[in-house]
């Protein structure tokens, strides 16, 4: 089982070279939805525990568990930047794709690729002040674009608004987004 997790980590690892173009994500000034709240206790949790601590991430948590990524994302030595879609974002993505949650969760390779598209693993977590518009290589080895308007654009041209930034965790940082990003 340990080798499987190491293989998953290796498969999702990215190089810092892919991060060099990124340095300044900022939240939208007027959030179209209520973003999860941050509290000091979250800074003592890993990124998985941060997601588990908020009911608005329950589908994301289910997805991470279904893909078998909870152990990897709990790695205390990692430096993850996670763009976390809310439950409403997942509901919209399922409606847009015509898939049910059960169908998505049953397709582990697709689910793992989609979840990896929301994670960056580097030498350090990327807080809002550290990221600028440009291309970012994700843990799924796909490209994500940060637009000049401080939005995230997936490889299909869909954009997600960052509604909350800089939720600190022991192994990274979580930024809340309003859409599920889909790699090609």
Q: So what's the overall shape? A: globular
Computed over alpha carbons, the radius of gyration is 15 Å
Strand content: 15-25%
Report mean pLDDT, rounded to a whole number. 82
Uncertain parts: 1-37
N-to-C SSE string, H for helix and E for strand: HHHHEHHHEEEEEE
The neighbouring-strand order within the major sheet is 2-1-7-6-5-4-3
The percentage helix is: 25-40%
Instruction: Count helical runs.
Output: 7
Alpha-beta classification: alpha+beta
Could you tell me how far the N terminus lies from the C terminus, measured between alpha carbons in angstroms?
Answer: 29 Å
Total number of beta strands: 7
Largest sheet: 7 strands, mixed
Top keywords for this entry?
184 residues, alpha+beta, 7-stranded mixed sheet, 7 helices, globular
Summarize the structure in words.
- By secondary structure, this protein is an alpha+beta fold.
- It has 7 helices and 7 strands, in the order ααααβαααββββββ.
- The protein has helices at 2-12, 47-52, 58-67, 70-73, 87-97, 101-106, 108-116; strands at residues 80-85, 119-121, 134-137, 143-146, 151-153, 159-169, 172-177.
- The protein has a 7-stranded mixed β-sheet with strand order 2-1-7-6-5-4-3.
List the helices and strands and how they pair.
Layout: H1 2-12, H2 47-52, H3 58-67, H4 70-73, E1 80-85, H5 87-97, H6 101-106, H7 108-116, E2 119-121, E3 134-137, E4 143-146, E5 151-153, E6 159-169, E7 172-177
Parallel strand pairs: 1-7
Antiparallel strand pairs: 1-2, 3-4, 4-5, 5-6, 6-7
Helix pairs in contact: 3-7
């Amino acid at each position: 089982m340990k080798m499987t997790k190491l293989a998953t980590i290796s498969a999702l690892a990215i190089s810092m070279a892919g991060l060099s173009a990124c340095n300044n994500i900022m939240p939208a000034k007027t959030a179209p939805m209520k973003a999860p709240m941050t509290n000091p206790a979250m800074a003592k949790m890993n990124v998985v525990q941060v997601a588990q601590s908020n009911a608005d991430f329950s589908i994301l948590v289910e997805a991470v568990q279904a893909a078998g990524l909870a152990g990897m994302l709990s790695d205390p030595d990692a430096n993850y930047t996670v763009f976390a879609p809310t439950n409403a974002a997942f509901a919209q993505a399922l409606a847009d794709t015509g898939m049910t949650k059960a169908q998505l969760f049953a397709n582990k390779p697709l689910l793992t690729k989609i979840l990896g598209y929301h994670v960056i693993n580097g030498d350090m977590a990327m807080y809002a002040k550290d990221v600028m518009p440009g291309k970012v290589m994700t843990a799924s080895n796909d490209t994500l674009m940060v637009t000049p308007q401080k939005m995230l654009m997936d490889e299909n041209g869909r954009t997600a608004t960052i509604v909350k930034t800089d939720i600190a965790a022991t192994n990274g940082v979580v930024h809340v987004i309003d859409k599920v990003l889909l790699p090609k």
